[in-house]
Amino acid sequence: MAATESTVTSNPSNRERPKPKPKLLVITGPTASGKSKLAVDLASHFPVELINADSMQVYRGLDVLTNKLPLSHQNGVPHHLLGTVSPNVEFTAKAFRDSAIPIIDDILARNHLPVIVGGTNYYIQALVSPFLLDDSAEDMDESCLGDPTGSGNNFIGENDCSNNSYDLLKDIDPVAANRIHPNNHRKINQYINLYNRTGVLPSNIFQGKAAEKWGQVDNLRYDCCFICVDASLPVLDRYVEQRVDCMMHEGLLNEVYDIYNLNAVYTRGLRQAIGVREFEPLLRTCVVKDMHERERELTEGSSIEKGETLFNHNLMELVRSSSNTESTILLEEAIEKVKLNTRRLIRRQKRMLSRLQTLFGWNIHYVDSTESISSKSEDVWTRQVVESAVKIVKSFLSENGTIFGTSNDTGMKIIQRDLWTQYICKACGDRVLRGFHEWEQHRQGRGHRKRISRLKRKAQVPGFVEEVKYSASEQLDI
Question: Whole-angstrom Cα distance, residue 101 to residue 94?
Fold first, then answer.
């Protein structure tokens, strides 16, 4: 009888099966590898909604500098946490996790597949782990703690402050000091503040059972499929240089000038982004004085109306055409620093992905975008990147019989119908927008709202928006 009872008790079939975890697709990889493009392309094969996991693209503003995907390239695919956060706040890993979880729940409730897209890997790690290491430090002020896996996407220069703080941390807790880079001053100060507040060594908090389980693949919050879009370093380096040059011509320096503040703090919010601090010497010593004088000349006796833009030219071209040699030198030095720091970021991202794979056991599927970047061929991109990723996702979704959308692909049909809906914005010169999501983002944009306000004041246009719907077959004939 005892043997029978023992057999029944140990029979796995009699135990309640654990509820399967929600499925989550994560697309990560180094800067400039093509993550955002792949995520949008996957929407042609699966009913997906995207959640941005780039620590600088979450902020409003600096769209060129942070390389946000333009509305015209989003193809009507819903994007969440893209340009939604105030640029002056610190959007921590905890804030990202707490914002992303309810969005994921909503996406799953719509029977769509949530896709996390971005290269800020400590955001992703904080989201998929069942808790943050910071959460285990009870009775501690969150302001004393930061992300436990390293700094954000910004490169912190060696001359930002002295090494006294790092030396102090080494004296207090050499184990904790060994975990972080000597130039990561924000993390150094957080560890020192934590010790001053609690008297507990930081290395003692971030270890033990909690640290062993945190981020391990068998202890994740979701059933995750990790896809890394990667490319060789020489190709990425060349592409980054070209992309920075393009961004400069598209008005990167104008964006930085618009948010320039002589007393700016570069360790919080959007100003941490690569491409802000690098131009500070140029703006501080040369440009600001010249621009204020130029704006004064424009406003005195000019026809420019109050409240309209005073400076409509490309500031980079203005500096380069200037007779001020110092300005030109500082400009070129700043551009080279942006390129250098972006290349350094790519290497840090690659190291972090390797660490997640080797130390935490993440099964990361790599798709290679090297040839598509080098050749600039859409056919190569589709064949080598998109088709490879589609196979990975199909295999992932087939596990446990998970199906997104109904058997007749209702979810995809809804998305396709939305993509065929066109909205014409008369206020913006009959600009055509495709899909309700794209229209809503355009309607909420600052440029559109300014034009609406201006037109309302002048009472020139009685109606501003006209919606035009086409069926798929009719659209193909247009």
Answer: 11
